[in-house]
């Protein structure tokens, strides 16, 4: 059982994330909105050191007898040389045997990074905001139909995305390497990430990228403690927003959304570690990218488009069985399910030719996605369903799913 506590409320407003840095404390003090964050996931097992000015935020309750150190061990073949604080820990070797290695402090310096783009990525935390009135309220990806999904390049883009998705995907069953982390904890974390993305008016692609980074990181490490899972998820959002957003939230905002459960120093160190584990490969294909591409080839109504986005987003919360399918297959299944629900039609011939996917290829994932769609209203976590009940998304989560699917 997960003991969900209210010790770490999510207190932020989408209109207040653009305050100038000189007014950060004042704006944060005025933010009225409160939500429960992760409960047991946000139980930071170390006693946070208060500075000389004191801490304005309530502290999460500590866990009796728990360790104060993060247990993160790189298991990827890329040879990660960054590890965790002040402890010796067990690392899974490539042969499956357990070996004991020394831990290293997470580097806080970015000056040694060789890649100029990475130095820029890590330095974007202090980027200024636009006024809230200038921020777009549309969840459009930077890969817009007008700019990239033009007819003459669509096939090349699709081939590149299909090739990349095989290299930049998480491993099914990756939670087996993390005894303290359960699939239900990850569900709660992703649900919370959806709320953060919505409140800060971030792009839908930012959410999909952040979940990709989260799962790839968990695939390449071992022994992540449950109290550090929210730190990993917050860091994934931080990196994804820097990669995708024109004006990403500031580092202080990411500290604030966890009710200062984690410090700026912890976020910076974890950011460095995550980037190392992911080998700085940030341009991962997502379901959102494939859906946008499919819709450029076969245009659909607003209801069908938003319903496809909704069911695809629902699949982000579930590791089983959706990590067994590639992003393009899940996107095709979401597109197909939305078409069937709205128009009682299935995979169009134009996309069958374009992708070389047949109904036989899509069918198993389509059935799983249909089951997820049916039980969405009764799911314990409702951030996605609530989001898609708004007029912005044509109220598509109110649409009744089909009782059965009839296809060849």
TrEMBL record:
Source superkingdom = Eukaryota
Membrane-spanning segments: none
The record's Gene3D superfamilies line, in alphabetical order, gives: Cyclin-like (1.10.472.10)
* Annotated region (Disordered), positions in chain: 1-79
Q: List the biased-composition ranges (Basic and acidic residues).
A: 46-58
Where does the signal sequence lie?
Answer: none
Q: Which InterPro entries match?
A: Cyclin (IPR039361), Cyclin-like_dom (IPR013763), Cyclin-like_sf (IPR036915), Cyclin_A/B-like (IPR046965), Cyclin_C-dom (IPR004367), Cyclin_N (IPR006671), Cyclins_cyclin-box (IPR048258)
- Any idea where the Cyclin C-terminal domain is? 285-402
Cyclin-like domain ranges (all copies):
191-276, 289-371
- Which GO biological process entries does UniProt record here? cell division; mitotic cell cycle phase transition
Compositional bias (Polar residues): 16-31, 68-79
Concerning SMART domains, the annotation shows: CYCLIN (SM00385), Cyclin_C (SM01332)
Molecular function GO terms recorded: cyclin-dependent protein serine/threonine kinase regulator activity
Q: What does this protein do?
A: Essential for the control of the cell cycle at the G2/M (mitosis) transition.
Family per UniProt?
Belongs to the cyclin family. Cyclin AB subfamily.
Q: How does it assemble?
A: Interacts with the CDK1 protein kinase to form a serine/threonine kinase holoenzyme complex also known as maturation promoting factor (MPF). The cyclin subunit imparts substrate specificity to the complex.
Please identify the protein, giving its name as recorded: G2/mitotic-specific cyclin-B2
What is the species listed in this Swiss-Prot or TrEMBL entry?
Pleuronectes platessa
């Amino acid at each position: 059982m997960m003991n969900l506590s209210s010790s770490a409320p999510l207190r932020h407003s989408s209109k207040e994330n653009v305050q100038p840095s000189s007014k950060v404390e004042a704006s944060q003090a005025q933010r009225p909105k409160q939500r429960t964050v992760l409960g047991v996931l946000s139980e930071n097992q170390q006693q946070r050191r208060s500075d000389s000015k004191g801490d304005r935020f309530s502290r999460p309750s500590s866990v009796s007898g728990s360790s104060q150190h993060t247990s993160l061990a790189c298991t990827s073949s890329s040879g990660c040389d960054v590890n965790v604080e002040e402890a010796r820990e067990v690392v899974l070797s490539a042969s499956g045997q357990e070996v004991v290695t020394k831990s290293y402090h997470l580097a806080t310096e970015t000056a040694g990074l060789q890649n100029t783009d990475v130095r820029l990525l890590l330095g974007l935390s202090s980027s200024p905001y636009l006024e809230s009135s200038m921020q777009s309220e549309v969840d459009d990806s930077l890969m817009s139909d007008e700019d990239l999904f033009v007819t003459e390049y669509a096939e090349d883009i699709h081939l590149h995305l299909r090739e990349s998705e095989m290299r930049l995907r998480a491993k099914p069953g990756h939670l087996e390497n993390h005894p303290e982390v359960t699939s239900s904890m990850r569900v709660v974390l992703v649900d919370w990430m959806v709320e953060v993305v919505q409140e800060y008016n971030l792009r839908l692609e930012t959410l999909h990228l952040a979940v990709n980074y989260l799962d790839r990181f968990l695939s390449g490490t071992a022994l992540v403690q449950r109290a550090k899972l929210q730190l990993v998820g917050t860091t994934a959002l931080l990196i994804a927003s820097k990669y995708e957003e024109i004006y990403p939230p500031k580092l202080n905002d990411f500290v604030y959304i966890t009710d200062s459960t984690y410090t700026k120093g912890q976020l910076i160190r974890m950011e460095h570690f995550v980037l190392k584990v992911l080998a700085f490969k940030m341009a991962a294909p997502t379901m959102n990218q494939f859906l946008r591409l499919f819709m450029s080839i076969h245009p659909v109504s607003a209801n069908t488009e938003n319903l496809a986005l909704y069911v695809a987003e629902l699949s982000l919360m579930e590791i089983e069985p959706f990590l067994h399918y590639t992003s393009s297959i899940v996107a095709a299944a979401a597109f197909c399910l939305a078409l069937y629900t709205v128009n009682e039609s299935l995979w169009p011939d134009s996309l069958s030719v374009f992708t070389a996917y047949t109904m036989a290829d899509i069918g198993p994932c389509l059935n799983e996605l249909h089951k997820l769609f049916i039980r969405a209203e009764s799911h314990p976590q409702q951030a996605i369903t609530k989001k898609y009940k708004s007029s912005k998304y044509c109220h598509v989560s109110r649409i009744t799913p089909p009782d059965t699917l009839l296809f060849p």
